[in-house]
Amino acid sequence: MLLNGIAIYNGYAFGKAFILKEENIIINNDNIDKNQIDNEINNFLKSYKKTLRQLKNIRNLSIKNKDRKLLFDGYILILKDKLFKKDIINLIKNKLLYADTAVNKFINKQIKLIKKVNNIYIKERANDLIDISKRLIYNIKNIELIDFNSLNNNKENIIIISEDLSPSQIVQFNLDIIKGFIIENGSITSHSSIISKSLELVSLIGVNNITNLIKNNDYVIIDGIKGNVYINPDKSIIKIFDKKYNKFISDKKNLLKLRNLNAITFDGYNIKLLANVGNNKDINNIFKYGAEGIGLYRTEFLFMDRNDFPNEEEQFFYYKEAVKLMKDNLVTIRTVDLGGDKFLSYMDFPKEDVPFLGWRSIRIYKDNKQILHTQLRAILRASFFGKIRILFPMIISMEEVYFLKSEIDYIKNNLIKENINFDENIKIGAMIETPSAAIICSHLAEELDFFSIGTNDLTQFVLAVDRNNLKVSYLYNPLCPSIINLIRYIVNTIHEKNKKVGICGELASNLNSIKLLLGLGLDELSMNVSFIPNVKKIIRSSYYSSCKKLLDKILDQKTNKDIEKILNKNLINN
Ligand code: PEP
Ligand code: MG
Q: Which positions ≥6 away from 253 have C-beta within 8 Å?
């Protein structure tokens, strides 16, 4: 069977399907008869034992990962609490509840109590309780629960199949075993897709109904170049893809030979190619692919796959390690950009109709100054050891810039008082990713040192098209007249103020757009490193003068289709 979707990370992946399907649980709120009490207590105790056994197994599999091991140790302690078992049994006996209802009621009561405590770390335990109750209820109902850790012992490669995957699920994957994923939903610029690129994980999104069309253990080939999925293909197809895979790997190796060459056009226009990273492991690939520095460090990924906020020392360790690994090259650290589609299991987020326009990013700092202060202290301390710039996301106003700059001054003063070294001339920049920031970029350029255009968000906000909604994804296209004109305005305005501006959204690695981006006069392009060799090849075979002519021609076009036609033609004639 052949299906198709949208490829997120180019390449090929082969393996056995593993279907991730979470059941919708319905809790039975009726009362039981007295003669059912023993049976329900028995059900609960069986599930309790099974849950404990499962958690111990997972804990043992997680021994190499300190954070994960601690998480599961914590779960086991909660479960072993004497009152835990006793109170649930009492609810079954005295309130005549089904076992699952009793678990649900007990856990909800505990969560309510926890949420009253005014301590963010204690509040975070609520999520552990939710997880434990889910396990208990699944086991009462004999529903299989998926643990990524339980896949670790698999001998064969696995392709995960699911309706959707969250960023925090993907960061749990063991990449020695999980070689790719295919989901029904998703979008190119969602953070799940961004992480899968940084993990070099071949993945497809928008594959209709795949969870029903495939069975566990079916053999799957992902063609991440064309966006196809082959389910149980015959031997001849497997052979063809073996060949394609080997060629793909050898082409990739050849392109890597450009590693140490500049990204410069024939007529001398030099653009900086930088890397987008989400953790320090990503840095290993930076020099391999020939990036000149880090243009976007998405620090929120350091906050995921753990069960509490990283403290100042931990963050300092990460950032200092990053600058050391990068030697004297630039490291642009974006302050944590949570909310939208990036949530933490240990932090409460309000239920919002439009989270991308809600309580997210720098807006969270106002209510939780501790998060901002801790991060700024860690970044500033690390700045003493290398070349760091601070980048703020989601700016919409000068008030925010004044607020953030005054917070930096406050932290700097504290560090001076404490005799702690930092780079006093550290550069401060803003993402231009809201229409408002684009419109006021002339003011922003008077107050800040550098800029990075976040085309992922900018496109969704300017076009009023949700970046994560597959239904309207055909409208989500940064290569359209409005975005191109807006980028031209931003670049020209910021250049008039003698400041530099780059792009760090996914547009920077869209091979079709590179000549246009050169024509627009950008100073930097920051992208997932694996795209750098291809982008460099295009730049090194271009003339800046003809890219400017290309821009003029594109600006005359009125429709996306006309723009696409011209860009495609230019890429082929390259
Ligand atoms: C962007 O919006 O273009 C961007 C780079 O930020 P993120 O994708 O993390 O929202
Ligand atoms: Mg953004």
A: none
Q: Is 341 in the pocket of ligand 1 (CB under 6 A)?
A: no
Residue 486 has pLDDT above 60, yes or no: yes
Contacts of 383 (CB under 8 A, 6+ apart): 323, 422, 423, 426
Among 119, 170, 148, CA closest to 309? 119
- Of the candidates 304, 355, 307, the one whose C-alpha atom is nearest the C-alpha of residue 131 is 307
Enumerate residues 6+ apart whose C-beta is below 8 A from 167.
191, 192, 195, 301, 304, 341, 342
Cα gap 492→555, rounded to integer Å: 15
- What is the sign, positive or negative, of the torsion defined by CA atoms of 477, 480, 482, 485? positive
| Ligand 1 pocket mutation pick from 196, 457, 465 by most atoms within 8 angstroms of CB | 457
Higher pLDDT, 148 or 162: 162
- Nearest-CA residue for ligand 1 atom 4 is 454
d(CA 399, CA 410): 16
Q: Give all domains of the chain, ordered by start, each with its CATH number.
A: 2-21+146-253 (3.50.30.10), 34-140 (1.10.274.10), 266-427+505-572 (3.20.20.60)
- Summarised one tens digit per residue, pLDDT across range 14-47 is 999 999 877 677 887 889 999 999 999 999 999 9
Percent of the chain past pLDDT 70, that is, above it, reads 93
Residues 52-63: b if buried by 16+ CB within 10 A, e if exposed: bebbeebbebbe
Amino acid identity, residue 397?
A: S
The pLDDT of residue 165 is 82
Separation between Cα atoms, residue 108 and residue 114, nearest integer Å: 10
The answer to whether the CB of 433 is under 6 A from ligand 1 is yes
Nearest to 356 by CA among 335, 368, 342, 346: 342
Residue 381: per-residue pLDDT: 98
pLDDT of residue 71: 65
The 3 state secondary structure assigned to 395-408 is: CCCHHHHHHHHHHH
Neighbours of 268 (CB within 10 A): 8
Residue 223 in tokens: 């063609």
Report DSSP letters for 465-499, one per residue.
--TT-GGGGGG--SSSHHHHHHHHHHHHHHHHTT-
Helix boundaries (H) for 181-275: 191-198, 210-213, 235-255
What is the model's pLDDT at position 428?
98
Residue 66 pLDDT grade (very low, low, confident, very high; cuts 50, 70, 90): low
d(CA 184, CA 206): 5
pLDDT for the residue 237: 93
**Residue 189 Cα to ligand 2 middle (Å):** 9
Point out the residues that are catalytic: 191, 504
